Amino acid sequence: MKRRVLINAANIHSGGAVQVATSFIEELVSMNELDFNIVVSNEINKELKKLCVNTNLFKSYIIYDVYGFTVFFDLNFNKMLKNYELIFTIFGPLYTLKKPKKSIVGFAQPWIIYPENEIYLNFSFFNKIISRFKYFVQKFFFFRADEIIVELEHVKSKLKSFNFTKNIHVVHNCIASIFNNKDKWVNNFHLPAKKETRLGILSRDYPHKNLKILPIVAEILKKKFNFKIKFLVTFTSDEWEKRDKNFHKYVENLGSLDINQCPSFYNLIDGLIFPSLLECFSATPIEAMIMKKPVFASNRLFVRQVCKECAVYFDPNNIDDIASKIYIYFSKDRSLRKILLDKSYLRALNFNNPNKRAQKYVKIITNNLV
User: Fold this and answer.
1) Backbone angles phi, psi at 98, to 5 degrees
2) What is the DSSP string of 195-248?
3) What is the spatial distance between Cα 174 and Cα 81, in angstroms, rounded to a whole number?
4) 80, 138, 220, 346 — which has fewest CB within 10 A?
């Protein structure tokens, strides 16, 4: 029956979605769930090859890139989709001329469920109109799906408030399997000798990530507490060049990382800084916790539902609060810090894992084929 199913990841090119899609396809091979048709972007194919995943085992495996709404006019891609009874788009929306017979779509668009967010409120009038139109179109295609998969409970609750009446499944995100396989870790970073505390974040430089505050936090820590800190980021070269000299003074960029470099990144830092304003879910706090690094994060539902009491929370709009929380933590006795790290490690260990997530995805697909 699964031969009638297409797992669609052709639209995923960056961010945590690449890790999720790569991990899911890798787990399908490990589970011997091979009677699927797969379509992936070049970026995901690249990561699968690095992990030595034998993609030739699937019923079919196609590399095809689609980008946003332009796929609506991609006649070849739309023609390909007609061959399948069920399409599971790992992260949507699925822009198609004609709705598939069965469509399951992963939802991770916080702009739809939190339209009045801080970033939007600072937009110009014109940009607000553009934003509203963009997410109205996305919402239409998301709501055309037969079933939606979300990663946290707050997302399901918000979607229900928009009167989405179809099935909504909560399947928690998790760390990638690479974190449990030290033999595949790659450490090719070249950093100067460590002179100060290092906090870092694995992220693109999106506005909602709120990373503009990093140098200001560093300055407050230095002036108010005589506490020296360096932030490590993973921006693209274009993103890095757009930042000014003051940002470069307190922040060091390691560039975009491959999945097998991520565990080694956490070994470089003394803690995770996560001042995001808007998410559905981010695996970054879970990754830091499994690597026994403290998490300094925004006091928001998308973090609290993951970390519970295992993170140090701050107001992401209050620079002084961020700096104070960081200083207070590192001022504590090492044994007290270890208690939090041990608790957070257990939380991350029991939250979810790639195999369980893959099993849940497959079960949802199978149930829709009956």
Assistant:
1) -125, 135
2) -SEEEE------GGG-GGGHHHHHHHHHHHH---EEEEE---HHHHHTS-HHHH
3) 29
4) 346
pLDDT, tens digit (0-9, with 9 covering 90-100), for 233-251: 999 999 999 999 999 999 9
The encoded tokens of residue 42 equal 């070049």
Q: What is the pLDDT of residue 67?
A: 94
- Give Cα separations from 173 to 34, 58, 352, 369 (angstroms): 22, 24, 7, 24
> Checking DSSP bridges between strand 251-253 and strand 86-89, what pairing results, if any?
unpaired
Tell whether the torsion through CA atoms of 31, 35, 40 and 46 is positive or negative: positive
User: Do 164 and 148 contact (CB within 8 A), yes or no?
Assistant: yes
Q: Per the confidence metrics, is the pTM higher than 0.85?
A: yes
> Coil, strand or helix: which one is 55?
helix
Measured CA to CA, the distance from residue 213 to residue 197 in angstroms comes to 17
What 8-state DSSP symbol labels residue 273?
A: E
User: By three-state DSSP, how is residue 297 classified?
Assistant: strand
Count H helices and E strands in the chain, helices first. 16, 13
Which residues are paired to 14 by β-bridges? none
